Structures are given as C-alpha cells and as structure tokens.
Amino acid sequence: MSYTKHCIIEARETRAPFRAVGASLMAAVVLAACSTTGSASAGDDSSVALDEAPKLAAMTEAEGPFPSTYNPYPGVATALVGATVYDGAGGKIENGTVLFRDAKVVAAGDALLSTEGYTVIDGTGKFVTPGIIDIHSHLGDYPSPSVAAHSDGNEATSPTTPDVWAEHSVWPQDPGFARALANGGITALQVLPGSANLMGGRSVTLKNVSSRTVQGMKFPGAPYGFKMACGENPKRVYGGRGRKPSTRMGNFAVNRQTWFDAIEYANNPDAKRDLGKETLAGVLNGDILVHNHCYRADEMALVMDMAKEIGYKVTAFHHAVEAYKIGDLLRENDVCSAIWADWYGFKMEAYDGILENAAFLHKSGACVVIHSDSAQDIQRLNQEAAKAQAAGNRLGMDISDATTISWITLNAAKAMGIDDMTGSLEPGKMADVVLWNGDPLSIYSRPEKVWIDGALMFDAMDRKRRPVSDFELGQPGEGDVK
Amino acid sequence: MKDILISGLLGAVSALVIAASPATAQDVTIINAKVVVGDGSEPIENGTVVVRGGKVVAAGAGVSTPGDIPTMDAGGAWVTPGLFAAVTTLGIWDVGAVRESNDQRAGSAPFSAALDTSDIINPNSQHILVSRAAGITRASTTTMPSSSIFAGQGAIIDLDADAKPVMQAKAFQMVELGERGAAISGGSRAAAYVLFRSALREAAALGQGLPRTPEIGADGEVMLSRFDAEALRSVVAGTQKLYVSVERASDIRAVLALKSEFPKLDMVLVGASEGWLVASDIARAGVPVLADGLDDLPESFEELAATQSNIGRMTDAGVTVAINASAMENTRRLSQHAGNLVALERIPGAAGLSWGEAFAAISSIPAKISGYGDRVGVLKSGALGDVVIWDGDPLEVGSVPTKVFIGGVEQSLQSHQSRLRERYIDLDESDQPKGYDW
After folding, report:
1. B46: helix, coil or strand?
2. Angle at Cα A229 formed by Cα A226 and Cα A235, nearest 5°?
3. End-to-end CA separation in angstroms for chain A
4. What is the C-alpha separation between B167 and B121, in angstroms, rounded?
C-alpha cells in the first residue's frame, strides 16, 4: 500500500506543539481525506514510478493505523417506559420514557413522550441509566486466566515506554469483558497499560462488544489516553534493578527530561520518526489525554506543576486515594480524580484511603469518577459509587442518586474525551443504555438488559443473549450465568 | 475480652470455655428493633434484644423487657449479631506492600505448620479497627502458606478494644493443595500430596512413639521440620481443624477422599470455586466450606467453572457454606458480598441466597464452622453479647453500624480513617495549617 505525500506532510504538522484546540479536529479531517485518497489513488501511484523508484512510506499517525472496525449491531427502535431514569448528566425522571432508534438516543423524557413506532418495553419498577463506563481497566491486557503467558500490561523494561500501545496487548477473548457487561452494565471502558513505568504507554478506549479482534472493539472516534504513574511503583521496579528512578525525585527528573526531549522533537519537522515521542507530542498537542496513576496528595500537586512547566494537561489522576486532601487544587486545575470507593492499606501510598474521598471531592467542586482497576470491581461500579455516596450523605451532604450515577457515566466519558458521543441519554448520543431490575445504587439490583449503540447485547431474561468467550467453550460452566 | 481457650499440650483435646464477662459489659434491652437473629431466619420487625452480663439473654418478638436494666430504643433500626469473618489475616499486617509491617507469610523461615498466629495478633491494627466499624466482631485469622503447603496454626479472635484479642489459639491448620500448593512443593500437585501424606504420617508416628523420618527438604529448604510435624499431631488426631485451600472440582474430590485415609481429619474447604460441580459429594462428606462469594472468572485453570452461583448451589445441595472473608478486596466488604448473593435470587439461571441465609453466611455459619455454633454470630440466649445497630439494611453497601457491642461492651468506631475524615471534612487553613487540626 502507498499513500500520497499530502498525508505525510499533514501528519507532520500535527506534531507542532501547543495547538491544542484545533489539532484533534484537523487530524480527524486529514485522516478522512487520507483514507479516501489512499484507496482511490492506488492505481495512479503505480504510474508515477516511470522515472523514479517508488518511495516507501508507512502510514502516519494521522492516518490512524489500527483503525476501529466496530459497527453497531442491528437493533430495533425501542421505547423504555415507566422506569425511573437517571440520565447520566445529573438528571432524574420518574416514570420516564427513553427512546432510541438507529443506534442513537432519540429522547429521554416523561410519560408524555410518544412511543409510536417503537417497540415498548415496560420498565415499571425498574431503572434506566446510560451504559456504565469504566475509565480504568486492564481487561484484555491482564486477562483471565491470569497466567504468565497473558501478562501483557506492563512493558517493564524501561521507566519510560511511551511507544507502547495497550491495544496491542488486548486479548479480546478475555472472559472479563462479558462479566463486566452482564453484571456491571459496562458499555465502554478504557484499557490502560500498567503502572510499573513512569510513562506506561497509550491506552485504548473500547466498546464492550464481543469481537474477534481488538479493532472490532475500538471505540470509534475516541481519543487516545496516555498512562503515567507516580510514586512507589516506578521507583520500586527500577530502583530494585539499581537504575534510575529509585526515588520520587528520580521519578520527576526522568519525567521532566523526557518531556524536554519530546518538546524538541515536536518542534523539529525533520526529526526521525520516533514512536514514543510521537505519543508525547500528541499529549503536548492536546490530542492525547493524560491519565496519571497517583495516590498521594502532595505528589499530585507536584505533577500538576510539572504539567504547567511542560505545557500539557493532566486529564485525570487515577487511584487518587488522597485526592480529598486537595479537592481545591484539583478543582482549580480542572483535573478529575478516578478513584475506588474503599480500597486502602495495601501499599504505603494507599494508607490514607477513606470512604469519604469521592464525597469530599464533590463537595470541593472537583470532578469525581469511580473506577475499578479490577476484573471484579468492574462488575459492580454501581455499588462502589453507592458506597461513596453513602459515606458523604452520612455526614449530612446531600449527594443525589442522579449525581452519583454521573460518577460512573458522564464524568467518566468526559475524562475519556467521549462525552460528546456517550455517557448520558442526550438525544443524538450513542444508544448505550442499561435497564436495571431495580435501583442501580442498591446491592439487590442487577442489569436486566444492556444495549450498545441500540443493539441488545445482554438480556438476563434470555440465556443465549450473552457473549461466551472462545476460551470458555467446552469448559465446565460454559454459558453459565456466572 | 478473652474467651478462653484451653489448649493443652500437643495432641490434647481442646476445650472451649467462655470466660466470665468483663466488668465493663453493659446490661441493656434494645427495643423497637428490626431484629436479625442470624440463624438464617428473616428479620423480625419491632423486636427486642436483651443483653445481660455480656451475653444475649433473649432476642426476637414478644420478648419481655426486664425492669432492672436500661432500655435503648432503636427507633426501628436494624439490630443484628456481630459479623464473623472467616478466614482472614486481621491483626497480622499493617500495610500489604510494606514487608516489615506484614507477618502474613514467613517464606524464608524453616517453619510452616508450627507457625502460631496467636502469638502475633496486634489488636491495634487499623484493619481490626476498620473491620470493627463495619460490624465485624469476631474472626479467624492465620498466616498464609509460603515456605511449605502448610500455613500454620490460625487463631479465633475478637475485634474488641481490649488488649486480649485471642479467643482460641491453634484453632485450625491450613494447607494448600491446589495450584499454589503444587508450586510451593516443587511444581506438581503430585508432590503436594506426597508432602501432605508424609507430613501427616510423620505426625501420626510422633503420636505413637514410632521412629521419625528426617526433615523433608529440597534444595536446602526445609518443607517440613520436626516442629511442623509435631504441630500436625492434633490435625491427624482430629482435635484441630484442617482448612484445605482448594478450588478445582477434581481437587475437591481428591481432598474428600483423604478422609478415608485419615479418618479423623476435621476438614473445612476454603475457596472451592468449583464446589458447585461436586456439591453432592461435599454434602455427603459433611465437610463445610468457606467459599469465595463472587469469584466468577476463570482466573486460573483451577477456577474455570467459577460462578457467583457457587454458594447458592452448594447451599441448595445441603452443604454448610459461609462466605470466605479472604476472597475480597478488604474484610469490611463481607456484607457487600452477602448482599450480592441475595441479588442473584432474581436472576434466571442463577442461584443465590435468601436475605436470612445470606446474613447467616457471614454470621452464624462461619462461627459454627469455626467451632462457635450457637455462641457467636447469633442473637440467641447464651450467645456472646455481640450486637450491632445499623443505620440501614446491613447488607446494603451504603449501610454502616451506629453502635457495636462486643461481649456486651460498646466499642469505639474510631480509626485512622475516621480521624482523617474529621480533619479533611473541610480544607479551611485560614487560621492554622491542617497539621494543627486534631
């Protein structure tokens, strides 16, 4: 395959730093143009080579290698009526009606909405939410069974590996995807590299659809994320090998020098292509969102200053167990905290974890996202959110149920850069919808039906309407409710 | 409070004696309560609980209120027995990844079965305080298998605020006979079984004055020392329970078969993710199970059939099953795991538990499996006065205890976490830094 020079030049331009706002749009336009040109001009290219040898050229970053091949599965125009609806954006509708057709949400409103032309599902006594979104997962890159041959989440051979992409590790047959769908109502998730490295590599955002390939799961149009890690893990992994970093100050030194080098690269149109620096330039351009594993409050404050020094933005701190100590700083810097409800004590930097983390952040006006980092907890993000809500409300805070649902829907989508496509039941968004058999913030409720882009992908009332991984075929418990 | 264990010399029969209640126990009648007995029955509205001398005197509906002790109106709140967490590592670690604070594994020690957890319980451990504030009042706790397949001798503890956590030392021995046991003993389950049989035969020989074999070791590492063999004498004699950590259906069958070889073994299965596949065998053998409640992934090849319905299906088959407290992110999630099993009741094809059964699976049943049937985990006459008053349904994730009594003594619910909560409820430093806010 060959591509026109036009594409290559355009792609170079997207490396120029500090073009945050326009850059991602332009890249998308270029990508579309190139894709079209690439296929249509194939015949012309061969005729060019009359007086000169054909030039070899890989696809560029902007041309979008490893593109998503996901397309929504067929669905029927559906009206969910009579349920309590949480719209994901903080709204609640009693006796609501949710309409979707052609893979999109048409409306979420009250009982007066006409359901003519829709297949009506009675949701009386049930609840509707947008699809649940997990911003922090390792499904696929640390899949089940968790044998060494499957351990693909940490390229722990260098403290900075911005060149690796999590999607190249994702095993789409991980049975964990199906559990997250059936028990957790998960419709989208971000799969990140692990935290052994200061810079762990690119994340990938997936639709939680069964697929033979990771490309068949990739969320169309989702920006890439970039995984960074503070604190104990990088210094332990590399310090333990007698190399830098072995301290927190070493962590910062390596990070800063790596960023300085990336800026030089981004400013140099003639630089030799460098996969890692290409990702770092994408961060500097604002095209790639930084997801920074960081537990301690003091370290988060330092990272936010490092980001200012370098000129990038931290989109979210992940595992931020001490975020409650700096809710004001996080609000001022517009950084989300992606957190557990109750994990604590498993490592020194998790010693100060408290149940009130989310509630205190919310009170400070900072952005809260509840995440899993676990093949187990991804099946119960609704319960984890409820736990965090209750901790605040015990102290007299009035965190509404609808707000709590936003912690695992729209807020996650915002921090993943997909909130214009999913995360709430706003008309025109993807019809990623969960019908719960009761209040999703109650332990006694489970997803009854889950639609992804309007297609019914799970139905608790229909044993066959659930994905079963290749791995589980012919094994004891194949197709069990699990 | 210390409920005494009389554990004699090696091999002697352990006898359980409940100590006299401490002076600080408060006699109280709790009225207007939604009473949960903990025996598997459903909650009782407008019930009464009478605690006197550190013990439950009566609980339920139609209980008369004694005139000579204070009355507390629960205002309709849920009142339950304390939860029993089996099996845990409570009290033997502070921070998981801080090795010097963590006594869970003695991988470099020449000892295994001889390890005695009762020596090393720290009642001030934050995990004990945090678990107490989650309504857990008693637990079994043990070191974990590391240098050999034998974990050491676990203890039964209370979670109260006095300095005497150990109720029963050397209450049980734990052994790993699945994938992990195979890895520890040289790379195959077959080796684990040889080690297991050899160890038990050696222990039996010690009891009969027969000649001993030398230590069992490999590559300079001792897998079974004389001290370990001595510690196993009470296991062979059936006077100390043997917790067998095993997941795969075929491994469970193999373990049950060991009873014909060592008939006195008093076994408890731990984990048993594929237990539902052999539930009738387990029931027939009369072996109780501390089962992983929510494991539903083939995380290893010994858990291919794992499902959240495991406990429900085993219970339906007549197996005595409690929720394994070590199969969760932290011990305070015990009630969350129980609540999830109730949710399964409404899912076609799944098997869950009724509310009463689910609560029993974290109270009376683990207590019974641990040797404390009718004494702990129930609000019945004569049981220890562990009473918890909740701010909501105790199996809902949002609920927490408002009062916890252990042995009739009201407990502090404070911890490092509650103090951080109090300090950071606001971020106001206009007068002084946060460091002065305490």
Report:
1. strand
2. 145
3. 45
4. 11
Mark yes or no for CB contact B297/A481 under 8 Å. Answer: no
d(CA B89, CA B84): 13
Report the C-alpha gap between A95 and B438 in whole angstroms.
48
Domain boundaries, chain B: 5-420
Q: Do B348 and A463 touch (CB under 8 A)?
A: yes
Q: Would the CB atoms of A375 and B297 count as touching at under 8 Å?
A: yes
**φ and ψ at A40, to 5 degrees?**
-75, -30
Mind listing the pLDDT tens digit for each residue in A322-367?
999 999 999 999 999 999 999 999 999 999 999 999 999 999 999 9
pLDDT band at B210 (very low <50, low <70, confident <90, very high): low
**What CA–CA distance (Å, rounded) separates B250 from B261?**
17
What does DSSP assign to residue B102? B
Q: What is the CATH number of domain B5-420?
A: 3.20.20.140
Residue B435 structure tokens: 């460091």
| Local confidence band at A160 (pLDDT 50, 70, 90 cut-offs) | very high
The string of pLDDT tens digits covering residues A281-303 is 999 999 999 999 999 999 999 99
Is the separation of the CB atoms in A3 and A38 below 8 Å? Answer: yes
Q: Chain A contacts of B299, Cβ < 8 Å?
A: 144-146, 375
Query: Dihedral angle at the C-alpha atoms of B365, B366, B371, B375, nearest 10 degrees?
Result: -60
Distance, in Å, from the CA atom of A199 to the CA atom of B3, rounded to the nearest integer, reads 53
Question: Which architecture, in CATH terms, is A131-425?
Answer: Alpha-Beta Barrel (3.20)
| Among B306, B332, B425, beta carbon nearest to A342 | B332
Q: Is the ipTM of this complex over 0.85?
A: yes
- What mean pLDDT do residues B25-54 have? 97
Domain boundaries, chain A: 5-63, 131-425
- What's the pLDDT score for residue B302? 98
Of the candidates B227, B220, B228, the residue with the CA atom closest to the CA atom of residue B196: B228
Q: Which amino acid is located at B87 in the chain?
A: V
Do A377 and B336 make contact, defined as CB atoms within 8 angstroms?
Answer: no
Write the residue in B126, B294, B350 that is nearest to A481 by C-beta.
Answer: B350
Whole-angstrom distance, CA of residue B361 vs CA of residue B42: 13
Measure the CA–CA gap between A161 and A194, rounded to whole angstroms.
11
CB of A385 within 8 A of CB of A412?
Answer: no
- pTM of the model as a whole: 0.92
Q: pLDDT for B293-352, tens place per residue?
A: 999 999 999 999 999 999 999 999 999 999 999 999 999 999 999 999 999 999 999 999
Class of residue B337 by CB neighbours under 10 A (exposed 0-12, middle 13-18, buried 19+): buried
Nearest to A476 among B305, B346, B420 (CB): B305
Whether chain A has a CB inside 8 Å of the CB on B399: the answer is yes
Q: Cα separation of B107 and B144, whole Å?
A: 9
Alpha helix ranges (H) inside A142-190 = 176-184
Does the distance separating the beta carbons of A377 and B350 come in below 8 Å? no
Q: Which residue(s) pair with B72 in the sheet?
A: B30
Find all residues with CB under 8 Å of A33, minimum gap 6, and list them: A6, A7
Q: Is A437:A448 a contact under the CB 8 Å cutoff?
A: yes
Tokens of B37: 């007995």
Backbone angles phi, psi at B92, to 5 degrees: -120, 15
DSSP tag of A458: E
What pLDDT was estimated at residue A54?
A: 83
